[in-house]
Amino acid sequence: MSKEQVSISELLLSLDSLELQEAEQVRASVNQQLSSDRGGAVLSSLVEYYLDSSSSQAVLLLSSIRESHHKLLLEKLNEILGRPGTRLAALTLLGHLIRKQPPWVHHVSRSALLPSLLRCLKTDADVVVLITGVLVLITLLPMIPQAGKQHIYDFFDVFGRLASWSLKNPGHVPVVHLVHLQASVYSLFHRLYGMFPCNFISYLRLHYSMKENLDTFQEVVKPMLEHVRVHPELVTGTQDYELDPSRWRCYEVHDIVIECSRLSLDPLESSCEDDLPSSSSSAHRHHDTSFAPPTETPSGGSFKASGSLSPPPLTHITSDIQVQCHVSG
Question: Domain span at residue 201?
Answer without folding.
Answer: 108-324
